[in-house]
Design goal:
Length: about 775
Amino acid sequence: MSKSNTETAETGKGITRRTLLKTSAAGALIAGIGGTAVQSGGAASESTSENSAYGNCWQCHKLCGMEVTLEETEDGAGIATEVHGIDGHPRGSAGEGTKGTLCPKGLSQVEKAYSPQRIKEPYVRKDGELTAVSWDEAYEYAADRLEEFGEEYGPESLVEFHGWGTAGIFSTLFGNLYGCPNSMPHPTPTCFGSMAVTGTLMGLGGGNIRWVDYENTEYLLVWGRDPLETFAGQWEAKQLLRARERGATIVTIDPVYTETAQKSDMWLPIEPRTDGALALAIANVIIEEEVYDAEFVENYTHGFEAYREAVAGKTPEWAAEKTGLDADVIREVATGFGRAAPRAAITSWTGLGQSADHQKAAQNVVALTGLVGNIDRPGGQRWFGDADLADPFEVGCEADLPDNSVENMCYLTDPDAGYASLTNKPVQNTVPEMVDNGDVNGMVYYYRNPVTDGAAQEWLGTDGEDGALDKMDLIIGIDAFWSETTRKADVVFPEASQLEKPMLGSGGYGAYNTKSWVTGSKAAIGPQWNTKSGFDIIKGLGHAMGYEEYFSWGDKEAYINDQLSGLGLTLDDLEAEDTYVLTGEFGWEKWKEGGFANGTDQFMFDLDQLIATPYEKLSEQVGTEIETRPQWVPPGTIGDELTEEYPLEMLDARSVEFSHGGDQALTLPLEQLAESYDLEHEDYRGNYLLMNTVDANERGIEHGDRVTIASDHGEAELMAVVTEGIRPGAVSVEPYGFGRGSIQPDEDGANNMLLNRPDQIDPISGEIDRHLAISVNRSGGEH
Ligand SMILES: Nc1nc2c(c(=O)[nH]1)N[C@H]1C(S)=C(S)[C@@H](COP(=O)(O)OP(=O)(O)OC[C@H]3O[C@@H](n4cnc5c(=O)[nH]c(N)nc54)[C@H](O)[C@@H]3O)O[C@H]1N2
Ligand SMILES: Nc1nc2c(c(=O)[nH]1)N[C@H]1C(S)=C(S)[C@@H](COP(=O)(O)OP(=O)(O)OC[C@H]3O[C@@H](n4cnc5c(=O)[nH]c(N)nc54)[C@H](O)[C@@H]3O)O[C@H]1N2
Ligand code: SF4
Ligand SMILES: [Mo]
């Protein structure tokens, strides 16, 4: 950043210029962070500016900053050979003065950039065959098909899936401009809908059970989450381990002895889907012992009496029976958490967010944050502030975006239903049926693969029967690797990988708990083969569709600079600052001024004022009264019940080597995963089924055997990992995102969502239920 810019920024926009870090050894590099989970890339990190470029890792989309070592080539283009972290980076390090690193996923970016598995050119379907064509032809073809589609079916019969990358403008193109109201972003219904809806309604915020003020916490409940493998940027794993080193108590509540459980003070191997009982018992103890925050409860909450009644009699002994945990342990954790509060926090994500029966468990868990008053207080659930980026459409293109469909786009904020859903809006699992009904006829998608998320059979088809992908009239995708989804598309636009394009990100949660930040970089290398950045593709398609005025930026850098103009910065400034700048300060207890996430000035234990009608409908549907206050709802009430035929409960999870289903075409993560279970010698590069020794012995299954998992709906095959590190009765597919429909070149492993029925969703949020009753058998009969 030049001097004058710095001053403008400091005086004009309140930006603090961060201290440039001179030494990488300064501060605390925690030795052996997360086992092998977080490591530094390549050999030395002394690469000089002549042979290095900056980048922002987007392999799991968390933007850890990186320096890319380039080897000079004869044409002067340069080849990326190694990637390294950046010290002090808000996502890649634990904060100021600490070492920046890249995790195993991040290290596989070099392979991604040059992987021969990538889609190398644009394709369109000609006479039934996907055929490589020029960019112009692909744009024109797609635009023509979209125009015809609009005339024949109307834009409302298109669904739009987006995930990562420049997803915002993809949604703008199809939502605001083309007029498709069916936008399917992540959080609900694919990621943690049960928790996102409940957390928002109660007032904590959909995502705020995830973010902890690690720097100040004294007691942490890791509840249905494995942050040492699924850290949202490496800062998180590092700060968690640092909190533990300075004496904070870490308790992991998980049926699996996860990486995080192994590094915790206590592991509570809970019976799956009984978390609601545990949360009520913790509240029972906290209220009995009067260690709750009476002042917060009195002044800032609604429904405490209903909550108090709900927890009456829900003692640790009562919960011990449901959860399979020890009553004394429950009491100890409740007391520890209650006494440490507000410097006590909960982190949770998909473990409590991806099951129909977790709808109420999520409420019971979130209620604890209101009870102990830890919201946006030091050591509690942090409400991170955002950097003040400008809206590029306001700055860069004069044209006003039509506001035709945006308010309809989010499942959660349907204006007629309040926050409630139950409105038959499309969700991932209902799309196949809508295709059958003729309500949906086409799909556009960007950096997403819906066929490994849920109802996979209905999406993919089976036994000669067509699936939704076969039946749709038009599929247009922006993708990087070949999958069954891509192969069934009518237009495929190949996206350049993360090293090949300028990136921008801001936050938000990260290593700096009182400062927002922005990070960005130019492309380290040019687009490989005949690919383009997502931005360029969306712009090109937008132009062909007749929306030039809305996409008037020359290139992605100009688009990024328009966003940065809100901060008085440019991409050049960021590069000069090792890719990141800390921006404004944000304070604590922001609910005092701005209210809670439910739009009121009260945290709601009881949802009677917000969601009574949907809960009535839900009660009718499941034949049990689902109350608006916290309540114990046993597993099987809304979701699957275990039976003699299907006696095991299937869970699934992520692993540190993969970001969802996005890296399965790469050799490095596939090898590392196999090595982590000592199965690298096997001719198999799929995912694994973790099962307890007892369950394995009963079925004659040994470590490394191929096993078939089956529900009453479908089946899949994968390899068994036999271990003491999972509760008997539960089995876990790790990681998900393999098998049929995935980008694994041999389709090795299981797409466990072939076992999921379309109606297996949380009826309130539409979230896909990933707790299924299944059988497990050794494939191909006896030994
Ligand atoms: N490496 C990596 N990191 C990632 C991602 C990735 O794909 N790879 N994805 C990112 C995204 S988008 C997300 S949503 C997050 C998700 O982050 P996490 O939620 O941490 O993801 P999982 O590894 O699936 O961990 C869920 C945990 O919940 C446990 N669990 C399952 N059922 C129950 C239950 O009934 N009760 C309890 N108490 N626990 C249960 C599982 O055993 C598992 O350990 O990760 C983010 N980070
Ligand atoms: N069974 C099961 N399913 C789940 C979950 C689970 O826990 N279990 N978790 C859910 C959660 S939390 C989330 S957030 C979603 C995430 O799921 P998605 O949004 O689908 O994300 P990915 O799996 O990363 O997307 C994979 C696709 O991205 C493509 N891809 C890879 N790199 C690039 C690139 O550089 N550019 C482009 N354009 N495409 C690329 C790949 O070819 C692949 O088709 O998954 C959900 N699905
Ligand atoms: S945490 Fe994500 S963004 Fe950071 S280095 Fe790993 S893969 Fe890249
Ligand atoms: Mo997610």
